[in-house]
Structures are given as structure tokens and as C-alpha cells.
Amino acid sequence: MNLNRIDLNLFAVFDAIYTAGNLTKAADILCITQPAVSNSLSRLRELLNDPLFVRTGHTMTPTPVAQNIIGPARQALELLRKSVQHSHDFDPSIAEKTFQFACRDLIEASILPRLIARIEAQAPHIAISNYDIARVDVTNAMASGQLDFYADSATITDPYLQKRKIAEDRLVAVARPEHPAFSTALTLDTFLEYGHIKIAPRKDLDCAIDIELAKLGHQRRVAMQSHHFLTVPSVLVKTNLIACLPYHLAKHYDLAVAELPFTMQPTSYYIYWHMSATDDPAHKWVREQLFKAAESFQAAPPNSEAA
């Protein structure tokens, strides 16, 4: 038997005929026409190479093959019905599922802990996994179910992705405690006097700081480049280097913090998910918890030291 030819609807018709005993009543049960029932029965007879039912007066009598498969067929149909029904039900207190995230730096340090705290209190069997992924791979990973949520400051334009702004932050200058450049108000000359840690995912990529300085006709001296923010504080405390970090990340560390000596637009952060998951109850529930966690983050005063 070629399993690729099996249409589950045929077994629903088979069950209805077995229950009703004739094609007309089976059609009434299924709310379809009697010719449609006859056509489905013909296809199933061909598929199983058995008549399945023989006419006895006004009744369709099942053959031994039909009698043998009705039990498993009904179990399979019931399992399918329950699976469909349960896919629309979601109880966070008993749900067991791992949601795959890809987010970095600010989101991982400030919003993800808030989300995990909310989930732990309401859904103890739901887990969060966070990993890195190339931006070009996001859509395919979401479409295949390998990734549930992606957070980034960049705007991704894709018709299959949904997005929502969840946070906003500003860059600040940071250095080791008691750094001489931070003893008074940080000036542009002082900012440029020291070596810097540049944060960029690729070697040849200019970051927002470099782009803004270039507009002003300046260039900083880059002493080190890192592809993410989280290693920067451990380097700063051992050197006289300066770095620029999102404020809500920098405040978690024992660092000297100063406003930048030039104007920068705030950075917006977005959460993305695949449109196919928009109405999924489990995904929707986690999404709502994420939005609430982000709201508590955004509600903190701009210069608050709250975690």
C-alpha cells in the first residue's frame, strides 16, 4: 500500500458508513452528498483492495476486512480529533514545552530574566532556550519551527514575520570605576583621547558610534573589537579603555557611566515571530508574557538602577 495515497477523510467516511449501515444516512452524518460518500468508498475500496461493504437489502454489511480495521480506524480518528482539540487548548500550569529564542545583550540581560520569572511562577514546565543565529537564517528557522522568537535592534522586512517594538535604550560611555576621563563631564576631546572597545558583529562593519563620529569629522582609536557587549565590562575594569554600551545593560555592572558628548538617536528593539504561530495558544501565551516583561522594563525610569 502506498501511504502517500491515504486520505484520512476516507476513513471518516468509512466510519460513518459502518455506523449508519447505508450510504444515505452516512451522508447525513457527514453533511455531504450521497454521491460524495459513494466516491469516497470507491477510492477506499481501491486503496485497500477489498469491497469493505456488501449490500444486504437496504443495509451495507461490513466485510471481514472492514471489521478488522474499524477499531484501529476509529482509534486513529479519535486521536486526531483530540489532537486538534488540544491544539486549541493551553493550560500554562501543566504545559510542557521549550521555546527557542535568539536574542542578545540588552534583551538577554534585562528582559529575558523578567520573562523567565513570569513563566516560572505560572508555567513551571515551560523552558526557554536562547541561542545565536545569523539574521539571514531567521525566517527559515522560524518557518521550520526551529526558532520561536527573534529579538534585534535591526528592522527585518519579511511578509511572513510579525514584529512588535518591545524596548528602547540609549548608548552611554562606560569605563572602569575612577577612570580619569569620567572625573568631570565627559567632553568629545576626552572621549577621543583614550582607546576604545568597538562592538560589531563583523570585522568590516561600522557601528553606530563610528558612523556618528564620521558625520562630525572624527574617528576614535579602536584598541579592541568584540562581536557582543557582554565581554566588554571584564576588559574595561582592567584597562583605561572606553566603550559605549546600552544604558540598561551598563547599569548592571560596577562601571563609571557618562552620557555621550554628542547626540545619538535611541535604539529600538523588536521581537519577531512567524505569522504561522500568531494564533497558536501556547505561543500567544508566551508572547503575552514577553510583552508584559518588556512593559515592566520600559516602565523603569531612564536613570533607574533597578534590574
TrEMBL record:
<dbReference type="InterPro" id="IPR050389">
    <property type="entry name" value="LysR-type_TF"/>
</dbReference>
<comment type="similarity">
    <text>Belongs to the LysR transcriptional regulatory family.</text>
</comment>
<keyword id="KW-0804">Transcription</keyword>
<dbReference type="GO" id="GO:0003700">
    <property type="term" value="F:DNA-binding transcription factor activity"/>
</dbReference>
<keyword id="KW-0805">Transcription regulation</keyword>
<dbReference type="InterPro" id="IPR036390">
    <property type="entry name" value="WH_DNA-bd_sf"/>
</dbReference>
<dbReference type="Pfam" id="PF00126">
    <property type="entry name" value="HTH_1"/>
</dbReference>
<protein>
    <submittedName>
        <fullName>DNA-binding transcriptional regulator, LysR family</fullName>
    </submittedName>
</protein>
<dbReference type="InterPro" id="IPR036388">
    <property type="entry name" value="WH-like_DNA-bd_sf"/>
</dbReference>
<dbReference type="GO" id="GO:0003677">
    <property type="term" value="F:DNA binding"/>
</dbReference>
<dbReference type="InterPro" id="IPR037402">
    <property type="entry name" value="YidZ_PBP2"/>
</dbReference>
<feature type="domain" description="HTH lysR-type">
    <location>
        <begin position="6"/>
        <end position="63"/>
    </location>
</feature>
<dbReference type="InterPro" id="IPR000847">
    <property type="entry name" value="LysR_HTH_N"/>
</dbReference>
<keyword id="KW-0238">DNA-binding</keyword>
<dbReference type="InterPro" id="IPR005119">
    <property type="entry name" value="LysR_subst-bd"/>
</dbReference>
<dbReference type="Pfam" id="PF03466">
    <property type="entry name" value="LysR_substrate"/>
</dbReference>
